[in-house]
Amino acid sequence: MKTSYTYDGTFEGILTVVFEAYERKTWPCSIEQEHLAQPQIFGETIKITTDEQKVSRVWQGLQKKLSASALTALYHTFLWEQPGFEMVIFDYIKLAFTTQHNIEDNYAAPCVLKVQQAAKQMFREKHRMEAFVRFQKAADGVFFAAISPDFNVLPLIIKHFEKRYADQQWIIYDIRRHYGAFYNLQNTELINLDQVSLSRLRNLPAELLSDEEENYKQLWQVYFDHVNIPERKNPKLHLRHIPKRYWKYLSEKQPRIKA
């Protein structure tokens, strides 16, 4: 009989599934978030509740088997969110626990290859977000940026913006995943905005913008025009480094502001 596990959608939830599967000696055919799980007609579905003690035991076991970079890659695979990522994580952990030698370079194992691919894609998306995010300054002094990345990279870019904009209050909001990060000059907390607030902030209307905001945008566009040498234009190379899906974040890609 096929067994499916459901969890609460957290990384800790997946680690609890690993513990429960070993304790029950029942390997999953699928692992799904509770709110996305489909009823099983021919099989059993086991609902798993996240347990910190079980999470700790699994994590401590992994620390003995994997390097810090491999553990980071596992977490990045969770944030990767591509179909079947839960089973990739489970298979990777199971392989680590059942193999005597180091598995991190065993690319013949599909789960190892997938984790490495996920880590590379997450790395690229993280650095693109760090480079392409543009803030708008609201009238209350808070800087706001809406993002919609392919992968859930918001947790990975927070430190970058804490260091870069340590003297400013800012919000980076992932409109695809419906949560954001708010930095209040001391620490950063994760927030959720209601639909009314989000619709107003996504493209800040003129009455919410600081008087300086349009000047900043115009200055940036003028700078871009001056450093952009027409004779050296290479559209294909430009698209490779700045795909069109990122243009919505860039001031220099917005309609020109008339002086």
TrEMBL record:
InterPro entries the UniProt entry points to: DNA_repair_put, DUF4130
Any Pfam family hit: DUF4130
Domain of life assignment: Bacteria
Residue span(s) of domain DUF4130: 85-252
Name the record gives this protein: TIGR03915 family putative DNA repair protein
Species per Swiss-Prot/TrEMBL record: Pontibacter locisalis
Lineage: Bacteria, Pseudomonadati, Bacteroidota, Cytophagia, Cytophagales
